[in-house]
């Protein structure tokens, strides 16, 4: 029965304040505290007073004429009437948050897979050649898929460009941007998309091959170059940190991988700009440091190539996949999470099919619930959001940019 | 009842600016009303020690370490010893701080409360709530203002902002606008020596369609003054109105963008760039124009548009901050802070001037009626009366609302600590700690530098006339007094 007395009291308060604003209302007694009572009484008195004043004349928020009010008069009707709270609040939705969380899960899972592969190679449970072969095969498949997307995009771009070509025959900016990206060696294998440019970089317009094939050739060439360079560098990499003790190596590589996870570019832009370089660099550094614990040059070469594939190329592919296909993204997430969970369990318990299956089940459940709880938590935190906007905020100028 | 008042702020002459002139004008008008006013600020380059300005306004330039753009380093306590000395020497009763970003002002209010003096604070600026800098500033302001007797804001928007920032009771915040010295902003055709022409201006003379209309914009060329809007709007206004030219005065980091715009659009013969202009010369620039354009993005009061109106210019301004409160509608054309809207509003203003609909020749007299420093000083005096308790809290806080307001805030340490404690979970405790340390410092100072050893300084000679008006005594005596003071100072330095 808590509601009905309150309502009665509110009525009583209203009537009593109408009678005499100086008296405390029963509602004030209900709240008990003297402070709130005084406050409530004062509030009502103010209201009574402001209605008093209204008879004298309307208060206006203007400074240029003298008003029949004292300087510290606060008009309840107009005070803070332009205050806005959370005007641009967009409530999060649970499932869209979950899909966004897959980006993080995918990256953590790929780091875990890399670590498990290293442990397996280090303990000589798996041959490094088989690891890197499978990874390269996967990269090749991904590249084929990428190439297919690029062809599709190009077809769309040319069709839209022919429509636009009367107005803008030339787009010098695109070529500049393209050549910037082409200089980057790690982007060489999977050539980033060059929006709607008719002539991608490193394409010779007078060649007999089609531009697409020329680009494929360039990609294959740079892949070969990286392969050869790594082959040559492997002996050096092997002995680079050989003199450092294993303890330091483990500590250093863990920190570097943490840095990789922390600074990774989880942004949702679909453009194929490279992930933050600090993240990629620290991951490659970690693999270089770890490589010195391996017994032979072949091992070192395999691990480094594998790390380039996992940390350099795989994020680009994941980003593109997320932009292209939602189901593909979810399927990749499931595959990565199951593989990573299984591999981690197998590594920790020392192998066996049972451990693998248990890891898959347990890891998937834990990951799913962690994603769910975090998303739900973030949604729950939204109620503490309290942004205040008003006329005192600097205005954001709206300027039409015209290029002539 | 005359008071001894100390104005404290980091901003004072020789540095130019709005707060500086506010303090100076308010002080000199308060002196005219019979109060004793001193100004305490930090030492500027080549200016340290005590100086006298017109009317016996005494200025203390306290040596203090400035860190950035004439702002002193916030040390919370280090200002206390010299502040206490000055306040006792001058027998100050009311400490009036200005500008929320001024460290000296914040410290002075804290120390003044510790010493049992009345405090008033004037806020001159607007702050947002979003970025980290504002959050820190707002917390500091809350610290200072949780134990202040009264706050003055320059516009209603400023009051709302200040109440929200420092969680104040709105009744202890007064709105007292800035003012202009109308005599310094006379239109060109105005002859103050001929009183008849003052009262009876001739018929309005509409500008013909071929007469050139000059649009004036005077601002420091910073982002928050809306220079981007100005740069975007000028070429479009000039393109659509043939007989229009611009005069832009001021300097700042955006000057290069402005010059670039002129170069790109080849408008050298229609835009005059004047560069930096001293405040005394602003009027001479303004009177060359017909329209004043102020595209500012944030403005607590907008003194410059009042000055422009006083010079007889029609004002086009953005509807931001306190600007809409400042001038009546027949003097202004408002625009949203958008390029298109500013171009449209300027177009409307030009059309109205050409039709002769706007009586800009009457503006000066009207502005003179609206804003005067004498009026500001009178209203500020009422605040002092209320703070000290000379006006009953019934009258001061209006009706019977005074119930929650004891006329004078208690100086007891425990009451002050209660006020500070409510500032936040961690901040409240930190503020209490600061207040307690300040109190201990006060006791230590009382023991080691007792009041009895501090000289009481002589007041500037003045004679009280009837009606509370105060005039200094005759010139000879005044000159004698100055000589005597100089003598004393020389003796002190020897």
From TrEMBL, chain A:
GO CC, one annotated term: glycosylphosphatidylinositol-N-acetylglucosaminyltransferase (GPI-GnT) complex
Membrane topology: Multi-pass membrane protein
Keywords, in A-Z order: Glycosyltransferase, GPI-anchor biosynthesis, Membrane, Transferase, Transmembrane, Transmembrane helix
Annotated metabolic or biological route of this protein: Glycolipid biosynthesis; glycosylphosphatidylinositol-anchor biosynthesis
Compartment annotation: Membrane
The keyword Transferase is annotated on this UniProt entry: yes
GO molecular function, one term: glycosyltransferase activity
A Pfam family the protein falls into: GPI2
A Gene Ontology BP annotation from the UniProt entry: GPI anchor biosynthetic process
Region of interest called Disordered, as start-end residue ranges on this chain: 159-211
Chain ranges passing through the membrane: 94-123, 129-149, 218-237, 249-267, 300-317, 329-349, 355-379
Family annotation (InterPro entries): Plno_GlcNAc_GPI2
Assigned protein family: Belongs to the PIGC family.
Name assigned to this protein: Phosphatidylinositol N-acetylglucosaminyltransferase
Lineage, opening ranks: Eukaryota, Fungi, Dikarya, Ascomycota, Pezizomycotina
UniProtKB/TrEMBL annotation, chain B:
Official protein name in the record: Phosphatidylinositol N-acetylglucosaminyltransferase GPI3 subunit
UniProt KW Membrane keyword: yes
Function: Catalytic subunit in the complex catalyzing the transfer of N-acetylglucosamine from UDP-N-acetylglucosamine to phosphatidylinositol, the first step of GPI biosynthesis.
BP term (GO), one: GPI anchor biosynthetic process
One GO molecular-function entry: phosphatidylinositol N-acetylglucosaminyltransferase activity
GO cellular component, one term: glycosylphosphatidylinositol-N-acetylglucosaminyltransferase (GPI-GnT) complex
Disordered: region residues: 188-208
Transmembrane regions: 426-449
A Pfam family that the UniProt record links to this protein: Glyco_trans_1_4
Pathway, per record: Glycolipid biosynthesis; glycosylphosphatidylinositol-anchor biosynthesis
InterPro entries, alphabetized: PIG-A/GPI3, PIGA_GPI_anchor_biosynthesis
Gene3D superfamilies attached to this UniProt entry: Glycogen Phosphorylase B
PANTHER family reported for this sequence: N-ACETYLGLUCOSAMINYL-PHOSPHATIDYLINOSITOL BIOSYNTHETIC PROTEIN (PTHR45871), PHOSPHATIDYLINOSITOL N-ACETYLGLUCOSAMINYLTRANSFERASE SUBUNIT A (PTHR45871:SF1)
Signal peptide segment: none
Residue ranges constituting the PIGA GPI anchor biosynthesis domain according to the UniProt record: 42-131
Keywords (A to Z) from UniProt: Glycosyltransferase, GPI-anchor biosynthesis, Membrane, Transferase, Transmembrane, Transmembrane helix
Tagged with keyword Transit peptide: no
Enzyme Commission number(s): 2.4.1.198
């Amino acid at each position: 029965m808590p509601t009905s007395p309150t309502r009665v009291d509110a009525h009583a308060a209203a009537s009593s304040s109408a009678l005499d604003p100086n008296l405390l209302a029963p509602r004030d007694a209900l709240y008990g505290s003297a402070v709130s009572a005084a406050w409530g009484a004062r509030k009502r008195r103010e209201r009574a007073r402001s209605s008093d004043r209204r008879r004298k004349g309307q208060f206006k928020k203007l400074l240029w004429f003298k008003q029949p009010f004292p300087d510290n008069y606060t008009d309840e009707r107009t005070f803070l009437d332009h205050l806005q709270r959370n005007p641009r609040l967009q409530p999060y939705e649970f499932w869209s948050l979950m899909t966004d969380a897959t980006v993080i899960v995918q990256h953590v899972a790929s780091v875990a897979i890399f670590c498990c592969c290293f442990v397996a190679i280090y303990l000589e449970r798996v041959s490094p050649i088989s690891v890197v072969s499978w990874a390269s095969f996967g990269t090749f498949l991904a590249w084929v898929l990428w190439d297919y997307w690029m062809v599709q995009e190009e077809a769309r771009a040319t069709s839209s460009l022919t429509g636009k070509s009367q107005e803008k025959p030339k787009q010098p900016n695109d070529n500049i941007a393209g050549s910037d990206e082409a200089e980057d060696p790690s982007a060489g294998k999977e050539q980033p998309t060059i929006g709607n440019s008719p002539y991608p970089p490193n394409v010779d317009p007078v060649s007999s091959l089609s531009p697409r094939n020329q680009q494929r050739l360039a990609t294959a060439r740079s892949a070969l170059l990286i392969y050869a360079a790594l082959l040559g560098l492997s002996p050096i990499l092997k002995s680079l940190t050989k003199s450092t003790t294993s303890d330091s190596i483990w500590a250093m590589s863990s920190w570097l991988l943490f840095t990789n996870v922390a600074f990774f570019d989880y942004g949702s832009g679909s453009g194929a700009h490279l992930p933050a370089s600090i993240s990629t660099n620290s991951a490659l550094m970690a693999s270089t440091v770890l490589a010195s614990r391996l017994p032979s040059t072949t091992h070192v070469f395999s691990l480094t190539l594998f790390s380039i594939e996992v940390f350099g190329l795989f994020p680009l592919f994941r980003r593109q996949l997320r932009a292209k296909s939602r189901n593909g993204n979810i399927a990749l997430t499931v595959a990565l999470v199951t593989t990573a969970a299984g591999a981690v369990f197998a590594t920790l318990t020392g192998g066996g099919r049972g451990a693998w299956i248990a890891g898959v089940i347990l890891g998937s459940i834990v990951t799913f619930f962690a994603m769910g709880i975090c998303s739900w938590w973030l949604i729950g935190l939204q109620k503490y959001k309290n942004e205040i906007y008003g006329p005192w905020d600097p205005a954001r100028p709206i300027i039409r940019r015209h290029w002539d | 009842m005359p008071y001894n008042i100390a104005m404290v702020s980091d901003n004072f002459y020789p540095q130019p600016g709005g707060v500086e002139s506010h303090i100076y004008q308010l002080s000199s008008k308060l002196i005219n009303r019979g109060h004793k006013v001193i100004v305490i600020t930090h030492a500027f380059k080549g200016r340290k020690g005590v100086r006298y300005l017109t009317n016996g306004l005494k200025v203390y330039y306290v040596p203090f370490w400035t860190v950035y753009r004439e702002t002193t380093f916030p040390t919370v306590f280090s200002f206390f010893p010299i502040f206490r000395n000055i306040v006792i020497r001058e027998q100050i009763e009311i400490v009036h701080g200005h500008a929320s970003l001024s460290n000296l002002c914040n410290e002075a209010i804290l120390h003044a409360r510790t010493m049992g003096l009345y405090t008033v604070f004037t806020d001159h600026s607007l702050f947002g709530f979003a970025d980290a800098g504002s959050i820190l500033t707002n917390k500091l302001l809350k610290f200072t203002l949780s134990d202040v007797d009264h706050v003055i804001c320059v516009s209603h928007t400023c009051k709302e902002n200040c109440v929200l920032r420092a969680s104040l009771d709105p009744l202890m915040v007064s709105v007292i606008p800035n003012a202009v010295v109308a005599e310094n902003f006379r239109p060109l055709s105005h002859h103050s020596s001929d009183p008849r022409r003052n009262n009876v201006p001739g018929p309005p003379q509409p500008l013909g369609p071929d007469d050139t209309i000059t649009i004036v914009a005077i601002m420091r060329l910073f982002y928050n003054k809306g220079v981007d809007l100005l740069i975007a709007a000028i070429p479009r206004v000039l393109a659509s109105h043939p007989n229009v030219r611009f005069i832009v005065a001021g300097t700042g980091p955006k000057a290069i963008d402005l010059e670039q715009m002129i170069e790109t659009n080849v408008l050298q013969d229609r835009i005059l760039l004047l560069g930096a202009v001293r405040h005394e010369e602003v009027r001479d620039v303004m009177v060359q124009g017909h329209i004043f354009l102020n595209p500012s993005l944030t403005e607590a009061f907008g003194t410059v548009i009042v000055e422009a109106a006083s010079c007889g210019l029609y004002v086009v301004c953005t509807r931001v901050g306190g600007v809409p409160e400042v001038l009546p509608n027949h003097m202004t054309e408002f625009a949203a802070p958008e390029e298109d809207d500013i171009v449209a509003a300027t177009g409307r203003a030009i059309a109205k001037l050409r039709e002769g609909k706007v009586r800009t020749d009457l503006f000066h007299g009207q502005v003179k009626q609206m804003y005067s420093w004498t009026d500001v000083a009178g209203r500020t005096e009422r605040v002092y009366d209320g703070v000290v308790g000379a006006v009953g809290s019934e009258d001061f806080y209006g009706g019977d609302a005074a119930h929650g307001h004891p006329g004078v805030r208690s100086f007891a340490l425990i009451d002050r600590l209660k006020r500070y404690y409510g500032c936040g979970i961690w901040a409240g405790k930190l503020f209490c700690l600061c207040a307690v340390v300040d109190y201990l410092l006060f006791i230590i100072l009382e023991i080691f530098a007792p009041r009895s050893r501090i000289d009481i300084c002589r007041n500037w000679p003045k004679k009280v006339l009837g009606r509370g008006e105060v005039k200094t005594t005759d010139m000879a005596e005044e000159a004698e007094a100055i000589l005597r003071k100089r003598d004393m100072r020389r003796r002190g330095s020897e």
